[in-house]
Amino acid sequence: MTNQNNAPLFEKGDKLTNGYFTGDAYLFPLLARDKNNDFAIGSVTFEAGARTNWHTHPQGQVLIVTEGAGYYQEKGQPAQPIKKGDVINIPENVEHWHGAAAMSKMAHIAITSYEGETNVVWLKPVSEEEYSAVNKQ
To answer: Could you write out the DSSP letters of every residue in 95-110?
Structure first.
């Protein structure tokens, strides 16, 4: 009998090559926005050291960590360690980033609402200095 508890909840998906991520990150779409749902859902897998750029969401976002360990940080605030089972409720228009720890893969489900045609506003990358400081905590 195999141990299914360590298997990823969703497949890895396609590598994100849009310039909004540092390191290797992958997206497996789960639900596209449609006439019934004004949000999109996707599973994002971050290899160790991978992370988003700083960004905001005009209608907020919810992250559900499904695997591994990483960080979530709001601009001007200390980074929060996140791990499998954590739920992060990100308010609208709060500048933040999230991603894997330096030594651990991390995956999360992202539920992102739309305002008009926009669900994210991408900003500058998280610097190596910012990321290194978080991983020394």
So the answer is: -EEEEE-TT--EEEEE
- Give dist(CA 115, CA 112) in Å, integer: 10
* Backbone phi and psi for residue 59, each to the nearest 5 degrees, phi listed first: -125, 20
Burial zone of 24 (CB within 10 Å; 0-12 exposed, 13-18 middle, 19+ buried)? middle
Kindly indicate the confidence band of residue 3, based on its pLDDT and cuts at 50, 70 and 90. Answer: low
Position 2 pLDDT exceeds 90 = no
Q: Give this prediction's pTM.
A: 0.92
How many Cβ atoms from other residues are within 10 Å of residue 117's Cβ?
6
